[in-house]
Amino acid sequence: MHTPSGTSLPVVPAALAPVLPSRYDREREPAPGAGIRIESDTLPGLESVAPVDEGSVWLHDALLGPHSADIVRYLSLARSTGGPVLDLGSGAGRLAVPFARHGFAVEAVDRDASALERLEGWARRIGPQVAGLVVTHRSELTELRLEGSYRLALLAGAMVTAVPPARRPELLREVAAHLESGGALALDYTAHQLPGLIAEPRRTWAFQVPRFDGIDEWVVARQVFDLPSMSERITYYTARTGKLSTERVVLTTDKWIVDPERLAAELHSAGLHIEGRRRHRIDDRTESVLLVCRPDD
């Protein structure tokens, strides 16, 4: 939860201070306060971070790792719908590979070729049975053209917020056209209350990434909302300290703020209806929303 105003804030290791490169020195840093959080159960996502090089792959894994609890929810849904499963914005396979390990055929779609290579390598290391259940497809979501049919399609990890609103209806129509009867589209996103965005358009998040290998890993995330364009930018300043060295990486992701009513209208227009809605409160102005959508009869 957020640390209440007026209370002492966690001490972020000094190793993070040098993460701020000189080009950021001229920018006004967000003042610490109610926007500081230290828990990593619900974190700003990496949905539209540019493809990473090998030197920063660990950061992707670290920041997406805390979202792994959603695997349980999506697996439960898959058991009710069956496969094949379409994983849109799969990254390096945090959902696709566990799904294959549970016997589901999965088509994993991502724009980053290196992420798909890592996904395939992970599946092969587990064994041929798992590798044989995974097919990868490199594509931007805004240019997606599907050929198969699916019982379950996933836009997990708030991936829908990486799609420009003007291009979202086309994506939803493409997915809906390839869902089998009785299938489902599941997606999640962060819902913000407009007064909260107006009151606090700049927020700072600090958290320690859970690790069990003796490495100390911290992230400070700066979140800036732009209401005229209904968009947000998150910049991650990170430090990972081991016995011999410290690695520092800066990554930036641009996302779109979801208007729930507009999204519901787009789903309806695509031939989908919202069958289930699950909300998880993040704070008094923000919640995580999971939608399960079914094709119209």
Automatic annotation (TrEMBL):
Q: What is this protein called?
A: Class I SAM-dependent methyltransferase
Q: Mind listing the GO biological process terms from this record?
A: methylation
Task: Write down the species.
Answer: Streptomyces exfoliatus (Streptomyces hydrogenans)
Decide whether keyword Magnesium is in the record.
Answer: no
Give the EC number(s) listed in the UniProt record.
2.1.-.-
What SUPFAM superfamilies does the database record attribute to this sequence?
A: S-adenosyl-L-methionine-dependent methyltransferases
Recite the UniProt keywords alphabetically.
Methyltransferase, Transferase
Ranges for domain Methyltransferase come to 85-183
Lineage: superkingdom: Bacteria
Q: Which GO terms describe its molecular function?
A: methyltransferase activity
Which major enzyme category is it?
Answer: transferase
